[in-house]
Write a structure and sequence with these properties.
By secondary structure, this protein is of the alpha+beta class. 25% of the residues lie in helices and 16% in strands. The model has no long low-confidence stretch (mean pLDDT 90).
Length: 280
């Protein structure tokens, strides 16, 4: 890939075009960009091949930037495209008619990229991001989807974007105000909750050196954060020794706290997990 992260032909350029776009024609602009940059599209599709979960993508070539960095920029574009599917936070000073990309552009972009919509009926944190929890009386009742706010997409075997869902759940599984409002890790932007990824705190150029988190469904198993499993210098547990193994797995699976809010200063990025995939 000859285009580096600062090139006008990189995904970052497209992100900035979406961010600054005013008026109609955004959908056409996105589809035209994909048509004009087949090499970048092919790289994303190649990352979705099942065997790619065993191939490290984080090492850059001799010069330039790695595939994970370019995939991160794709993810930032998706974060922009789903903003209009989300509720405005109650304490927001933003105008209710503040312009975000119209709904409908996001699925059209994902499908043009070559992704498949997630159609699973049963809730699972690999495939679904919790947008709202509606409590039920039985604390042991497992989460059940009652509404989809935005669709999720898989690029082959690789998770591209989780579906945003409203669930009912007992308090031993998911707590309202925690599972739907605690800090969402590995995420740059949501309208109604705090987010953290490794780009936060860096400057306008440095933040674009962030790696994408890759999750895969391969051979009936779910692989979370595979590049840490492939990292020969991986350090088990990272910087959060005070957080027990079960709680850290919870963060890796859900990308947020679920029952007890563990706060917004965790460092879960060095952890990974593998488990059997659900039947549906």
């Amino acid at each position: 890939m000859k285009d580096d992260v600062y090139s006008g032909h990189h995904w970052r350029f497209l992100y900035e075009g979406v961010f600054d776009h005013e008026g109609d024609g955004l959908g056409d602009m996105l589809l035209r960009w994909l048509d004009e940059h087949p090499g970048h599209v092919a790289e994303v599709r190649e990352a979705g091949q099942p065997e790619s979960h065993l191939i490290p993508l984080g090492k850059p070539p001799r010069r330039g930037y790695s595939s994970l960095v370019r995939l991160y920029a794709v993810n930032r574009i998706l974060d922009l495209l789903i903003l209009n599917y989300q509720d405005q936070p109650d304490d927001s000073a933003a105008s209710p008619d503040e312009a975000y990309p119209p709904v409908g552009i996001y699925p059209a972009f994902c499908e043009a990229l070559g992704a498949d919509r997630i159609g699973r009926r049963g809730f699972h944190p690999f495939f679904h991001e919790v947008v709202e929890v509606r409590p039920v009386d039985d604390p042991d009742e497992p989460p059940s989807i009652v509404e989809e706010r935005w669709p999720g997409y898989m690029m082959g075997s690789m998770l591209l974007m989780r579906a945003g869902v409203v669930v009912t759940a007992g308090a031993r599984h998911l707590v309202a105000g925690v599972a739907d409002r605690s800090t969402l890790y590995w995420t740059f932007w949501r309208r109604s909750r705090s987010t953290r990824d490794l780009s936060h705190g860096w400057g306008s150029n440095s933040q674009w050196g962030t790696d994408f988190r890759r999750d895969y469904l391969v051979d009936g198993r779910l692989h979370y954060n595979v590049d840490e499993a492939l990292n020969p210098h991986h350090e088990e547990r990272g910087d959060d020794e005070d957080l027990g193994p079960a709680s850290m797995i919870e963060i890796v699976r859900y990308r947020c706290s679920t029952v007890v809010d563990h706060g917004d200063d965790l460092f879960p990025y060095n952890d990974h997990h593998v488990e059997p995939a659900p039947a549906d």
